[in-house]
Amino acid sequence: MALPRILVLVLAGGAGGRLELLTEQRAKPAVPFAGVYRLIDFPLSNCQHSQIADVWVSVQFHPTSLSDHLANGRPWDLDRTAGGLLTLPPFQGTDRGGWHTGTADSLWRQADLVREFDADALVVVSSDAVYKLDYREVAEAHLGSGAEVTMVTTEVAEDDASRYGIVRMGEDGKVTDYAYKPEAPATTTATNEVFVFSPGPTLDRLEGLADEAGEGGLEDLGDQLLPAQTRDGLARAYPLDGYWRDVGTVPAYWQAHRDFLAEHPPVDLDDPAWPVHTRGGRHSAARLLRSAEVEGSLISGGTRVAGTARGSVLSPGVVVEEGATVVDSVLLPGVRVRAGATVTRAVLDDLVEVGAEAAVGGDGDIALVGRRARVRPGSEVTAGARFPEPDED
Q1: Model confidence over 2-15: pLDDT tens digits?
Q2: Which of 36, 132, 138, 219 sits a CA distance of 20 to 30 A from 316?
Q3: Closest CA to 173 of 194, 144, 212
Q4: What is the pLDDT of residues 102-119, one digit of tens each?
């Protein structure tokens, strides 16, 4: 029996504004994670291990940062003569052309291509979460259910539930209610932005919703499409039992790194049965000098530590000079912390330099320092600060 024909559409075009300075000069899916990875590595690795070779990536904001990392799909075995990786930028020339205004709008603009591909199942995923999932397994469960959409779900914290699409389910797994980012969530069962659609019926429905929306246009999948499918009794849930964390905000991004600094991380990124792949860099081994004190940290290749690092993630090329201290922080590639400086509960973007005797962060909210910023020697960036301020050069 032939395997079902599955197409994965990775929605990688969002502005990522909730990540603030981290997405001012890069696409959200290109944001580094756990030292050597990028956020888009997780859905692409899931595709590889699910044996799905037809993967389309919809891009929009800062596309060069993402295209440079994708490398024609080679790290995920997607550089193929037939099928493989296809990037979908915004385009002009047809009535579907223009700037995407949301995830549903993005799908509508690519509807003709999706129909032409003629898949049995369309898997639509976001690229701002950390998790492992067999998409083929979910697609096959969907095809046997009679549903128009299968929503992969997970449990979230009660005080965080209003950020997500929230569902209620019947005993048979049928979704009986769906609310998109409700002010007062009825449950803590959230969709984790992995959806399997029956392409024909879903695109037909999307056409009708687009006609109703008129010039206002479609927005996100959760605004009109998913509620309509739920009301018609055509939505099913697929609970994800393993780890899943959305990292689309600075606090969530920082906390996800804390999860991976635990003695037993929630996901084994080097699991021989399901490794997370990425585009390899050209970095030497990490160098821990005699004066270095490192505890409970992730140290990437190409780093040089002569000072102290505790509970932190150091990306490739980071330098922590002798006498400098980095605690509970995430340092992205090329950061340099000069002698005597302290960095505490902070996220430092690419190529930031913290001057000698300077202090960044503290005991409060996460401090965020933007790409290539220079913190002057002896100065202070307080806890919770965003440096430089968004309106500065």
Answers
A1: 779 999 999 998 88
A2: 132
A3: 144
A4: 899 999 999 999 999 999
Q: Which two tokens stand for residue 232?
A: 């018609």
Q: Same CATH fold, 287-387 and 6-260?
A: no
Right CATH for 287-387 from 3.40.50.150, 3.40.50.1010, 1.10.238.10, 2.160.10.10: 2.160.10.10
Q: State the Cα–Cα distance between residues 154 and 232, nearest whole angstrom.
A: 23
Selection from 93, 97, 118 nearest residue 106 by Cα: 97
3-state SS, residue 85: strand
pLDDT in tens, 42-56: 999 999 999 999 999
> Is the pTM of the predicted complex or chain greater than 0.90?
yes
Cis peptide before 182 (omega within 30 of 0): no
DSSP letters spanning 268-299:
-TT-TTSPPP---------EE-TT-EEES-EE
CA angle 337, 340, 345 (to 5 degrees): 60
Q: Residue 91 has what pLDDT?
A: 83
Q: Does domain 6-260 have CATH number 3.40.50.150?
A: no
Please return the burial class of 130, using the count of CB atoms within 10 Å of its CB with bins 0-12, 13-18 and 19+: buried
pLDDT band (50, 70, 90) for residue 282: low
Using the 8-state DSSP alphabet, how is residue 73 labeled? G
